[in-house]
Design goal:
heterodimer, A: about 270 residues, alpha/beta, 8-stranded mixed sheet, 13 helices, 8 strands, about 15% strand, globular, B: about 80 residues, two-stranded antiparallel sheet, rod-shaped, ATP binding (chain A), nucleotide-binding (chain A), cell division (chain A), P-loop_NTPase (chain A)
Chain lengths: ~270, ~80
């Protein structure tokens, strides 16, 4: 039986799709059969980040409406044989996703896969609701910035009330904090909320801190999840995150600024 | 130069201002959260069971809400019965 993990945030542009792509790739790299689903109906983007945009024939909504079966719609990753992508539809029909339809597709996928990763759209409307509704665990992606932290807190409220697990009395959705676009130098200068600040406010366990990194953009340019880039700090941070998620203890890296010498401290600005 | 700041008595960092503001906003946000007690989902299930001993109703027939008003918590239950024919 698969575990369903939603990647959510409330606010847009904080790194949900980047995180979904790297998280699912990391699981697949470890031999776990993983499917990642784009719930952002109308604004499909996960396919681009995963580098499979030219191979999308059928999508999630086609499967829900019975216009294609799952075997036709699942896109197998070029590099990792355990990894599959289910693209979002480009339709503008807001009601394309239904609770019954999403539930049915997830149930069918659960028979075959170890992990189902749901890439949520921004906001708290239907798509975001359905992405989290069936989840067992949630990665709450947050930037160290006031509006993102507030929106994450809103989403935590929804996770603790508007999900199947909670409604059926089967316990709660396990929440994990993923802090992205972190800049330790700015934190040290007092210009950015620190990991501890965000942890204290949101009060959920920290799964990983992803440093602000030029590699995130270059990876998306190339259509290759940043976790594949083992040279990049962000790539290694995502690898640590996946390991921790699977229960392997790893220390948090990239959360403190490199130490400056005495001259740097006196004269550096 | 960094060491001059020490003598100038710079104002609070913007990060600590952000943290203080967020604490207030989040506390306010959480007040309105009507999650209610942890037993609520189970209570709902059991109520449904009892109701169904007498009349067939769908899952959506039982609605439970917790409301907080002026320090008072109100547990509100709504059970919609099917139309009598």
């Amino acid at each position: 039986m698969a575990k369903i993990v939603v990647v959510t945030s409330g606010k847009g542009g904080v790194g949900k799709t980047t995180t979904s792509a790297s998280f699912s790739t990391g699981l697949a790299q470890r031999g776990l059969k993983t499917v990642v689903i784009d719930f952002d109906v109308g604004l499909r983007n996960l396919d681009l980040i995963m580098g499979c945009e030219r191979r999308v024939v059928f999508d999630f909504v086609n499967v829900i409406h019975g216009e294609a079966n799952l075997r036709q719609a699942l896109i197998k990753d070029k590099n990792f044989e355990n990894l599959f992508v289910l693209a979002a539809s480009q339709t503008r029909d807001k009601d394309a996703l239904t609770e019954e339809g999403v539930g049915r597709v997830l149930e069918e996928l659960a028979r075959d896969f170890d992990y189902i990763v749901c890439d949520s759209p921004a906001g708290i409307e239907r798509g975001a609701h359905l992405a989290m509704y069936f989840a067992d665990e949630a990665l709450v992606v947050t930037n160290p910035e006031v509006s993102s932290v507030r929106d994450s807190d809103r989403v935590l409220g929804l996770l603790s009330s508007k999900t199947r697990r909670v409604e059926k009395g089967e316990g709660r959705v396990k929440e994990h904090l993923v802090l992205t676009r972190y800049n330790p130098v700015r934190v040290q200068k007092g210009e950015m909320l620190s990991v501890d600040d965000v942890r204290e406010i949101l009060a959920i366990p920290l799964l990983g801190v992803i440093p602000e990194s030029p590699a995130v953009l270059t990876s998306s340019n190339a259509g290759s999840p940043v976790i594949v880039n083992k040279e990049a700090d962000a790539g290694r941070a995502y690898d640590d995150l996946v390991a921790r998620f699977l229960g392997e203890p790893r220390e948090h890296r990239f959360i403190s600024a490199e130490k400056k010498g005495l001259l740097g401290r006196l004269f550096g600005g | 130069m960094d060491w001059l700041k020490f003598f100038r008595g710079e104002p609070k960092s913007t990060a600590s201002v952000a943290k203080e503001r967020l604490k207030v906003v989040v506390a306010h946000q959480r007040e309105g959260r009507a999650n209610g007690p942890v037993y609520l989902p189970k209570l709902r299930e059991e109520l449904l069971d009892v109701v169904r001993r007498y009349v067939q109703v769908p899952d959506s027939a039982v609605q439970i809400n917790v409301q907080r008003e002026a320090g008072l918590e109100v547990l509100e239950m709504n059970i919609t019965l099917p139309d009598a024919h």
